[in-house]
Structure to design on (415 residues):
């Protein structure tokens, strides 16, 4: 039987400080009720000064390794929108800090779809025999790129990290990852973006405005596309897996916005209470959101061995992707 | 009023927690405190319910419910050639 990637451990890490809606609303002329009714978010976590994405990534990685009972891996992948530096990638720093000398390490840049793209990378590396064990971490300090005056984005995003350990196994095992559905559409690059800081701006000869160093998002356009791309991608991956919507025990969707999650569940004909969510407690943590939601649900006992699970995400690029697995019997970190 | 208007009213009450007594043909989405995010969600529901592709820009929060119903009907008619 061919080699596939199998989920062996999961962990997460949040910075200590929770930021309430009330705290943000005061500055933005908004309200707790306004934020909750539009996003479903009640609070998010912001990293303290002196913290970087690698700090949260290391915390989540350590817990995932403990959950998997592994002391080392062959490859470390970090999915992030907010790397420690524009260059180099954050994964080598994380690998070194976890004590893995000389292992391969690289970042995946697919914004909120980064974790699902990272899973596809890890699955391919394992299937090809290039690695036996991969640590995949979705990590963000999104607060570092938020525009403090933008009411629409600064209440949505938060910081955090989630990680999984994947090992080589067989397709009939619980925890086997796949099949996948992945896609992108570069015509939407302006809808979710940081305009300044890359080669396009640096070589344009134009000095960027202050706001162009911050993250911006076209909320309405993103809502419209997110629901349709995630529902299309989920249907495609269910078809490839030979599952029907009714077979899905848990839908773990990128925690973008509670209204998007509910709309997606309705479109797919999956009862809303099967959609796993922690957006009320942590906000949208971009590439970290799926493994963070997965770890919180695992810790709460919401994910039971044998549960048939769909993961689906949509993010900047535009990018989207989905995969499936049956929840394995793994330890809580 | 048209059946599309009635459908919009039912959706606003059932899915968006709008008080039926507040809804009148001449009232706008803005008057009901429904911004562009709510409107795009409403259009997604309609698109799925009717099984036709409509545009995300079909209506704006400044449109009245009556006008939005007309605009959606125009799109539905264009999407299903007789």
């Amino acid at each position: 039987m061919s080699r596939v990637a199998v989920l062996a451990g999961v962990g997460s890490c949040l910075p200590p400080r929770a930021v309430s809606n009330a705290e943000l609303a005061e500055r933005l002329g908004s309200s707790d009720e306004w934020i909750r009714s539009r996003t479903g978010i009640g609070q998010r976590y912001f990293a303290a000064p002196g913290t970087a994405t690698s700090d949260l990534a290391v915390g989540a990685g350590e817990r995932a390794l403990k959950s998997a009972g592994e002391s080392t891996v062959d490859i470390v992948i970090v999915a992030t929108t907010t790397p420690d530096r524009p260059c180099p990638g954050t994964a080598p720093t994380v690998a070194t800090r976890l004590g893995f000398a000389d292992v391969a390490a690289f970042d995946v840049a697919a914004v909120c779809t980064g974790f699902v793209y990272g899973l596809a990378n890890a699955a391919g590396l394992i299937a090809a025999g290039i690695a036996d064990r991969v640590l995949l971490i979705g990590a963000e300090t999104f607060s570092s790129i938020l525009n403090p005056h933008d009411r629409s984005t600064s209440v949505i995003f938060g910081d955090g990290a989630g990680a999984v350990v994947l090992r080589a196994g067989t397709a009939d095992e619980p925890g086997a990852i796949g099949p996948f559905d992945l896609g992108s559409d570069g015509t939407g690059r302006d809808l979710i973006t940081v305009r300044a800081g890359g080669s396009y701006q640096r070589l344009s000869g134009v000095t960027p405005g202050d706001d162009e160093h911050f993250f911006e998002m076209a909320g309405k356009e993103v809502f419209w596309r997110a629901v349709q791309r995630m529902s299309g991608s989920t249907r495609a991956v269910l078809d490839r897996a030979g599952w029907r919507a009714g077979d899905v025990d848990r839908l773990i969707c990128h925690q973008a916005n509670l209204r998007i999650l509910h709309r997606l569940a309705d479109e797919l004909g999956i009862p809303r209470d099967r959609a796993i969510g922690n957006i009320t407690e942590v906000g949208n943590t971009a590439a970290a959101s799926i493994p963070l939601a997965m770890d919180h649900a695992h810790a709460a006992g919401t994910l039971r061995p044998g549960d048939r699970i769909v993961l689906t995400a949509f993010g900047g690029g535009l990018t989207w992707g989905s995969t499936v697995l049956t929840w394995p019997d793994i330890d809580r970190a | 009023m048209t059946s599309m208007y009635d459908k919009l009213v039912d959706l606003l009450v059932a899915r968006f927690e709008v008080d039926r007594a507040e809804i009148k043909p001449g009232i706008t989405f803005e008057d009901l405190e429904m911004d562009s995010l709510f409107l795009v969600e409403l259009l997604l529901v309609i698109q799925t319910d009717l099984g036709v592709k409509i545009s995300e820009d079909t209506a704006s929060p400044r449109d009245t419910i009556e006008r939005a119903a007309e605009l959606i009907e125009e799109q539905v008619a264009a999407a299903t050639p007789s």
Observations:
- Residues 33 and 61 of chain B are 9 Å apart (CA to CA).
- The two ends of chain B are 23 Å apart (CA to CA).
- The mean pLDDT of chain B is 88.
